[in-house]
Design goal:
single chain; alpha+beta; Deoxyribonuclease I, Chain A; four-stranded mixed beta sheet
Length: 124
């Protein structure tokens, strides 16, 4: 088993910085042997939301919110390209257990931290 723990650039970061981040993450994943179960864990600053239409192979419908942010789009695309599945969106949780970050003023609740695993291991 290989675990990769990471922290993605914020949604306000430049596209170049986000591209560099995902290239480095892809390079790290490429170094893991195919027989290993790799788990990617981190704060991706990515709102992936509930709607999984067209990306059912990457995520389920148990995300939080209705509007995917730019980082969410990058993360979903990265997972799709690298045969990863966003685990926290695959099974039901009590709504409050889905939230991974709430801003200090507490008005919004977000699910921006995620665990992604190889698609072939998604039912383990």
């Amino acid at each position: 088993m290989s675990n990769i723990v990471c922290y993605a650039p914020t949604n306000d970061s430049t596209e170049d910085r986000k591209y560099e981040y995902y290239e480095e993450l892809r390079s790290t994943i490429d170094k893991i042997t195919e027989r290993d179960m790799n788990i990617v864990i981190g704060d991706f600053n990515a709102k992936v939301v509930r709607n999984n239409q067209g990306i059912e192979n990457v995520m389920g419908v148990e995300g939080v919110g209705e509007v995917r942010n730019e980082n969410g789009t990058h993360f979903v695309s990265f997972c799709s390209t690298n045969n990863l599945v966003i685990r926290g969106t695959l099974f039901q949780h009590i709504e409050i257990h889905k939230y991974t970050w709430t801003p200090p003023y507490g008005k919004y609740k977000n699910q921006i931290d995620h665990i992604a695993i190889k698609e072939k291991c998604k039912n383990l």
